[in-house]
Amino acid sequence: MIDTSGALVLFSGGQDSTVCLAWALDRYARVETVGFDYGQRHSVELQARAGVRARVSERFPDWAPRLGEDHVLEMRGFGAVAQSALTAERAIEMTSKGLPSTFVPGRNLAFLVYAAALADRRGLQVLVGGMCETDFSGYPDCRRDTLDAMQSALNLGMAQDFRVETPLMWLTKAQTWSLAKALGGESLVDVILEDSHTCYLGDREHRHPWGYGCGTCPACELRARGWADWVAEGRPVLHAEVVEP
Q1: Cα separations (Å) of 191 from 7, 21, 80, 143, 220?
Q2: With 0-12 CB in 10 A as exposed, 13-18 as middle and 19+ as buried, what is 234?
C-alpha cells in the first residue's frame, strides 16, 4: 500500500541516494528530492542528479507521477568552514582523530536541518537518507544513534513529527546492489551503473564493471567491493524483511 505521507530524499546523485530514491518512490505517493552544493570537489555529482531523475522517470512509469520537484540548496559557506578532502585540495588519508580526511564535520547534521526546513515548507513528513553503519567510511554522523538524536531535535525545534528514514542503514554495499535489483530489476541496476556518480575525485572518464570513477578513492573502493561481492553471490535480490527504515 502506498503511504500518502510526502517524502523528501536527500539526493546526491550517487549509488546510495539513487537506491533511496527508488525505495521512496516505491512507498510514498509524493517524493521530492534535495541536493546540497557545499563546494564539494566532486561537484559532478550535482550534474548526475538530473540524469538519474530523468532516467528513473523514463524507465519506471509507475513511479514517474510520484516524482515531484527537485531542489538544490547552496551551502558553500558551510563547506568552507567544515573543510575536508572533499572541499579542499587535501590528500585522502586517515587523520590524527582516526577519521578519514574525507569526513566533513557535521555535514549530515547540516543537511538534515536544511532538509527539514524545506520539508516543513513543502508539507513533507519523511526525510530519507542513504546513511549506513554497516559498510561506510567511518563517519560518526552516519550512525543511527546520531540520526535518532537529530530526529528528536528537529521535531522539538520545529514542532513537527518528522521521520528520518535510512533504508540502507544495516545493509552492506553488496546488499545495496541487491536492494536496487529488488526495487527496479536490472533496469535500475543499469541506471546506477551508467548515470549515478560516487567517485570523490569526480572521474567520469573511466568506466568499470561497477560504473564510473577513479577506482582508487574510498568511495570507489566501497562501490567496487560491493559490486564484486554481489556478482560473486550470483546478483541476488534482497528480501524485503532485511530492510528497516
Answers
A1: 21, 12, 32, 27, 17
A2: exposed
As a whole number of angstroms, the longest Cα–Cα distance in the chain is: 49
What pLDDT score was predicted for residue 240?
Answer: 59
Any residues with CB less than 8 A from the CB of 190 and at least 6 apart, and which?
none
User: 229: which residues sit within 8 A by CB, 6+ positions away?
Assistant: 172, 173, 174
pTM: 0.88
Characterize the bridge pairing of strands 3-10 and 28-37.
Answer: parallel
Q: Which residue has the higher pLDDT, 217 or 92?
A: 217
Mean pLDDT of 78-104: 49
Asked if residues 21 and 10 have their Cβ atoms less than 8 Å apart, the reply is no
CA–CA distances in Å: residue 71 to residues 10, 25, 54, 177: 10, 17, 14, 26
- In sequence order, the 6+-apart residues with CB closer than 8 A to the CB of 170 are 132, 133, 134, 242, 244
